[in-house]
Design goal:
The protein is mainly beta and 276 residues long. Helix content is 13%, strand content 39%. The chain has three helices and 18 strands. A hairpin with a 6-residue loop joins strand 7 and strand 8 (95-98). The protein starts with 5 loop residues before the first strand and ends with a strand.
């Protein structure tokens, strides 16, 4: 019986400590009394999760863990020890995450790990999940995906995509809070040659929310002292978007007659954006 998996086992006998469950090879594992309901009887099958107790003995529980062996997920740090951290995996016994630098973590922080087994067959959480993420194998962009944000980088937020692939949300594409460890929905905007993907929080081509947000910014400024030639840094600082997105949205709003561009009264030779 391998710890770290959810499986259906058959009750073979009862003892003072609980019910013993067996697999097809007649191996037995204890389900402690606290998880044994009165209606269970010998021969019944029950779905359990297997792990090892403090004495490294296999044990079963009916509690549902947040993840199983080979899954990548984020777990909350419960305590910090000399050689690593203990994480809440959703059952009575926390899972250990070894690290050479435990002091860089904080209690209550979420950390991305891969659930696996150590050399002794004990359930363990490992850092360094990137090496286990696969290149995106489809050549179809703009599809809807599930993401698990797990790291902040100089470029943005790194995410696990559909539990298998690596994707990046760029800083200038994040217009609402994104929490590390909280799953979300995103859309693939680009597939890179190395199999990594660029992500968008909005459906590709849907500019409705961006238009509303930019119109609000223009209205708040009354006169927005930016134009197509403005430096990307100024556009990013004022509008929280890339220069490319800014130019696209300005063009759309001009066609819709919602704004107008006039000569700037503050900067000679420059243009400014007004509400039409």
């Amino acid at each position: 019986m391998q710890p770290g998996k959810i499986q259906k086992l058959q009750i073979s006998r009862f003892s003072d400590n609980g019910a013993y469950l067996k697999d097809s090879f007649e191996e037995e594992v204890l389900l402690p009394n606290k998880f044994v309901s009165q209606d269970l009887k010998i021969g019944d099958f029950i779905e359990v999760f297997l792990y090892t107790d403090s004495l490294d003995r296999p044990v079963a529980t009916t509690q549902k863990p947040y993840g199983v062996v080979d899954e990548i997920l984020t777990l909350k740090i419960i305590s910090i020890e000399e050689k690593g951290c203990f994480l809440d995996i959703g059952i009575d016994k926390d899972i250990f995450m070894p690290t050479k630098a435990p002091k860089r973590f904080k209690i209550g922080e979420f950390v991305a790990v891969r659930i696996t087994l150590d050399k002794q067959g004990r359930l363990i959480a490992r850092l360094g999940i990137k090496e286990h993420l696969k290149p995106y194998k489809f050549n179809i962009p703009y599809v809807k995906v599930e993401i698990l944000p797990f790291e902040k980088t100089p470029l943005g937020i790194g995410c696990v995509v559909n539990e298998e692939y690596y994707g990046l949300l760029y800083k200038n594409q994040i217009f609402s809070p994104v929490q590390i460890g909280e799953k979300n929905i995103a859309y693939i905007s680009k597939i890179r040659s190395d199999g990594k993907v660029d992500l968008s929080l909005k459906p590709i081509g849907d500019k409705s929310e961006d238009k509303i947000r930019l119109l609000k910014i223009i209205a708040e400024h009354k006169i927005l002292e930016l134009d197509f030639d403005s430096p990307p840094e100024e556009i990013q600082k004022t509008c929280q978007m890339s220069k490319k997105s800014f130019k696209t949205l300005i063009s759309i709003l001009l066609k819709e007659s919602k704004i107008k561009i006039l000569d700037s009264s503050k900067h000679a030779g420059k243009k400014a954006v007004h509400i039409a």
